[in-house]
Amino acid sequence: MRKPLRCRIGWHKWVTRYSDDGTAHYLRCRRCSKEDHEGGHRGVVGF
Who wins on pLDDT, 28 or 19? Predict the structure, then answer.
């Protein structure tokens, strides 16, 4: 399956997710499932 166009140009739709044990959080794109563990995204989460 191909990555959505917005994700290919770097415009992800970030949402906050939590680890299984609930001790850590990270960001994941709702469209392509890319994960960002460093918190290095730019913009508003979920936008």
Answer: 28
